[in-house]
Amino acid sequence: MSDVAARLAQIVGDHHLLTGDAIPEDYSHDEELTLAPVKPDYVARPSCAEEVAALLVAASEHGVPVTARGSGSGLSGAARPQSGGLLISFERMNAVVEVDTTNQVAVVQPGVTLTELDAATGPHGLSYMVHPGELSSSVGGNVGTNAGGMRAVKYGVARHNILGLQAVLPTGEIIRTGGRIAKVSTGYDLTQLIVGSEGTLALATEVIVKLHPRLDHSATVLAPFGNLDQVMTAVPAVLAQGLSPYILEYVDNMTMAAIVHTQNLELGIPDQVRDSCQAYLVVALDNRLVQRLDEDVERTAELLAELGAVDCYVLEGGAARRLIEARERAFWTAKAIGADDIVDTVVPRSAMPKFLAAVQEMALAAGGGVAGCGHAGDGNVHLAVLCKDPVARKKLMTDIFSLAMELGGAISGEHGLGRAKASYFMELEDPTKIALLRRIKESFDPAGILNPGVVFGQG
Amino acid sequence: MSDVAARLAQIVGDHHLLTGDAIPEDYSHDEELTLAPVKPDYVARPSCAEEVAALLVAASEHGVPVTARGSGSGLSGAARPQSGGLLISFERMNAVVEVDTTNQVAVVQPGVTLTELDAATGPHGLSYMVHPGELSSSVGGNVGTNAGGMRAVKYGVARHNILGLQAVLPTGEIIRTGGRIAKVSTGYDLTQLIVGSEGTLALATEVIVKLHPRLDHSATVLAPFGNLDQVMTAVPAVLAQGLSPYILEYVDNMTMAAIVHTQNLELGIPDQVRDSCQAYLVVALDNRLVQRLDEDVERTAELLAELGAVDCYVLEGGAARRLIEARERAFWTAKAIGADDIVDTVVPRSAMPKFLAAVQEMALAAGGGVAGCGHAGDGNVHLAVLCKDPVARKKLMTDIFSLAMELGGAISGEHGLGRAKASYFMELEDPTKIALLRRIKESFDPAGILNPGVVFGQG
Known about the structure:
By secondary structure, chain A is of the alpha+beta class. The first copy, chain A, has helices spanning about 5-10, 50-60, 115-120, 140-145, 150-155, 160, 190-195, 230-240, 255-265, 270-275, 290-305, 315-330, 330-335, 350-365, 390-405, 420-430, 430-445; strands spanning about 15-20, 40-45, 65-70, 85-90, 95-100, 105-110, 125, 160-170, 175-180, 205-210, 210-215, 215-225, 245-250, 280-285, 315, 340-345, 370-375, 380-385. Chains A, B: Keywords: FAD, Flavoprotein, Oxidoreductase.
């Protein structure tokens, strides 16, 4: 056993340090599609913040790069470790420390999955409302990527639902930020700086999440439209009504066909409607009172008809749940149909028609194709990119990101840059901002041990 | 005219650079109570981002400290300039650039006041929902302090309603952050780092604010309680119901008496009720449908009765508006009754009874007194501190802040640290965090020209 391994083992215990062949393949990647898996030299499974701190001190002293891992469900490669590096897996730090009903927060360790958190808060009538597609994702992962998901249109993304952190700096110092409080104007907001930093600034070892009262009633409306432009025009109109949908998604017909096929879904849409429609809008409403929900569903259906929907289906509980679940699994559908890469750009929602039309043309010109769905209310577009040739694909991806930025958007709405999208960011972002981000990075991590290659790429 | 003055005048034009006796007294302070006014050496009134950039370059080269000023309505002295310094007043940069109804945002210059913004968005049925007490405050000031106000319990603080910035770095570089988008996971969140940084990191020259649909109907319920503990116990119970009040305020009887007296307010509360009550809860509800509002008001009144309210008054439009306005002007009431300082701490709402009881005792022991009101839903406590002796007062303030932090809170919920509360922050905050904040400050402002003395104090 090397000196480094011996020291790391001393911190977490022999049983919780893995090296060499003892490291399972699963630790060599997350769910990102394009990067080759890489085994780290060490996997440590700490049990507490103090062990994380000691690991970071040891890594600093030995110049070992450190990658944090929650559930490994990320889609940008931020949890793909480096050769020679240390992967810190938070799987043992998976306690729900407290569900605090008075302050409507939960205090959790980073390894807690969303499924586990929901099981803990449910009996109190409360929910953490961030709902990325993968409920096996961990709260720590949500912090790292600033996770989003379908409910963000009403309840916000991780950033809006994470109130405080205990975090370990690369120097081994442990700090607390924020708290069981929804507002604070006392120095710079370290919580929000660490949220979305993809393990490059500090490692969260405890997270205070905001909880909302569970609303007892919800319903889902599915509206097919003749074309995607009409869907995009309908989105702001629905939002302007103040109906506050908690889901407002578009699905193009290619993606809907793939979802229906791979998930074996029966939505009761007649063939002739399906054949004449290029896109769907999914609107879900929630309310604490069933009568208000029914009224709002009716109003929504009327509104969608006025806005040109070909038809409007109010899905019953089971069908609604299956559609939403299938939509959440759109990444797996994209993977199943052989997507070569995925896009998670965000643009102002007013720019979505132009963006989507241009992207279709770009993809055809590149000899490839795109199919998509996304968080229409947020302008967050998810595309499966089909383009085998790596050179053409890289150019296509660059063109897509470049257009999104020209339209006032950004490369990633919720997946993060990770390792996979960092080079595009380096190429396209304002160099003044990159230089500033690098200086901020150095103010946390002067030795550069935390997830090198992520956000800033290799350059 | 000095070399510096000549150079600054060249940037903004002679007419928009003031020096010496030409500087009106108003520029020497904001509304903070304890600091002596200080005239800056220069007041510049730029018209655009490029002029702001040129001013910062000139200030850097000449080592001139720079303070930004919006409307000067701040309560912590972040806009109080320094002798020898340059005050940049944003009064000429007061254009509402665009009200974008599709993306539900407004793009404004920092000098726009909340009254002006509301006038611009109103005709579109939209509102910027941050509502600090002072509607003459500017959007740029809201960015600087991360302004809050009564509606934060439902609509969040400035942080949650500011989506993007154009900002000038102290080096004169102009960057854009965020955009007309509600979510983004693309590099560190510079928008949220600049929001609440009180003019110490960068100066906002354009702000993208989130707008909400205006709800047509609102109502205000006023409930007197026997004691403050009962009020504080009622708060989480109201929130747990999912009634989503947009205002949830407590007012202690001393403050209510002062408000009623100074504002000449008639609330129709019988003397015997008033005499038996130590505190009031104010609950305001809004809805797009009047019938739902009426139902929710009725449910709220029932609930407050169950929670021990002595009575419950549903205030008519005029009375409700006057009470809310009077509550918004509580700072002026505090000033009128001769408050020696004010406190804006935030604590977890579960800790409010303990905090308020302890603070009363501390104040009595210091030979002074406190009266208060605050954003009960957010745990944000506003206290008028009466304590003439400066040594005793400083100790009392330190003890109050220290207790708030022990209880998991922070020195300021929404006013910021400014110049006035910075020394308490330096004394009480974790030195590891202060060192990190300093490094972040240096990553933006290596020459330290932006608002020295603010946030970090003189140390």
